[in-house]
Write a structure and sequence with these properties.
binds adenosine-5'-triphosphate; alpha/beta; binds magnesium ion; binds iron/sulfur cluster; Rossmann fold; four-stranded antiparallel β-sheet; 12 strands; globular; single chain; 2 domains; about 35% helix; eight-stranded mixed β-sheet; about 325 residues
């Protein structure tokens, strides 16, 4: 499959008063056209910062320390105006917090129309008409009236839908969806997922789908990347990952899932907590919580073994099906 997005060895640095921290480290991940890649991991593991880096929206305080991001075959230069335009035309993002993605002083209709116009070059009248259609498409009732509302005048669920309308306006090649359906009820969530998969079929859109919900990822993703403390722990085809996890952290996540096991009392949350960015252990960051940890794990960061289709970063990955079970 040709590559739509290719993130190579991305490292992100944030300068805090006590010194720099590296919330995303050496992350490599690719997405093909029409492919959905799920990105999962506990809160704070670097999912949103990875998404924002892809979009070039990480903000001034957040520096890209190393690595590169290629989109449709060409490496993006964050300082190039033309590359910023390529991103704006070719990528859409659904933000985890709708208020991050919506401008409080512009109407919903104006914002969706503007996103459409940037991607397609349409005139104002066409943009405004298309905005109403898009608001309708994402399930906002009375879209013509809502188009005249400001973000604070509509509910959180409707803000989320308006942001989805903005993100998909003009059919971007890549959709970065950061917890896209968290604020929505189950029925609307199903409608939005249907809409995304239809768009994906029609225009071959690639999707980076971030979620805490492993059940949802099992439904939507072709491949899944698992992050832990800023690094990719494992990437695998969704079926492989759920049936034969290779990284002990992935296995721990799956063990804490009710849908894989009807005997609730056998569910096991992973012991311990994620280490803070300011006090990451040397070696494997998962070692303090890992039942398989040995001496080398505490001394050396594990190398990533394998290709993008299936890789694991662990000194002692689970190999046989019996080990993973
Ligand atoms: N602007 C910032 N300044 C300081 N620290 C930040 C900033 N943005 C993110 N961080 C820290 O970087 C780490 C990664 O954050 P990120 O938002 O990417 O996590 P996440 O995986 O998206 O978590 P969640 O599942 O809660 O959304 C966290 O420890 C977070 O506190
Ligand atoms: S490298 Fe060692 S500590 Fe880290 S996940 Fe693998 S076995 Fe566990
Ligand atoms: Mg996040």
């Amino acid at each position: 499959m040709s590559t739509l997005l290719d993130i190579r060895n991305l490292t992100v640095r944030i300068d805090l008063p006590g010194g720099p921290v590296f919330p995303v480290r050496d992350v490599s991940l690719s997405i093909g056209p029409g492919e959905t890649v799920g990105l999962v991991g506990e809160s704070g593991c670097g999912k949103t910062l990875t998404c924002l880096s892809v979009m070039g929206l990480q903000g001034r305080r957040v520096a890209t320390e190393g690595g590169g991001i290629a989109f449709q075959g060409a490496v993006l230069d964050p300082r190039s105006r033309e590359d910023r335009r390529r991103r704006a035309r070719g990528m859409g993002m659904i933000f985890q917090n709708p208020m991050t993605g919506l401008n409080p002083v512009r109407t919903i209709g104006w914002q969706v129309a503007e996103a459409y116009r940037i991607r397609t070059g349409a005139d104002r009248r066409t943009g405004a008409a298309r905005a109403v259609e898009l608001l309708d498409l994402v399930g906002i009732p009375e879209p013509r009236r809502r188009a005249r509302d400001y973000p604070h005048q509509i509910s959180g669920g409707q803000q989320q839908r308006a942001m989805i309308a903005m993100a998909i306006a003009g059919n971007p090649s890549l959709l970065v969806a950061d917890e896209p359906t968290t604020a929505l009820d189950v029925t609307v969530q199903a409608q939005i997922l249907d809409l995304l998969s239809r768009l994906q079929r029609e225009i071959g859109m690639g999707i980076l789908f971030v979620t805490h919900d492993l059940g949802l990822v099992a439904e939507v993703a072709d491949r899944v990347a698992v992050m832990y403390a800023g690094r990719v722990a494992e990437i695998a085809a969704a079926g492989e990952l759920f049936s034969r996890p290779r990284h002990p952290y992935t296995k721990g996540l799956l063990n804490s899932l009710p849908f894989l096991d009807d005997e609730i009392d056998r569910l096991k949350p992973i012991d311990g907590t994620v280490p803070p960015l300011t006090a990451l252990p040397t070696g494997c960051a998962f070692a303090p919580r890992c039942p398989r940890a040995v001496g080398i794990c505490r001394r050396a960061v594990p190398e990533t073994e394998g290709q993008d289709g299936g890789l694991v970063a662990c000194h002692r990955p689970l190999l046989a099906e019996t080990e993973a079970a």
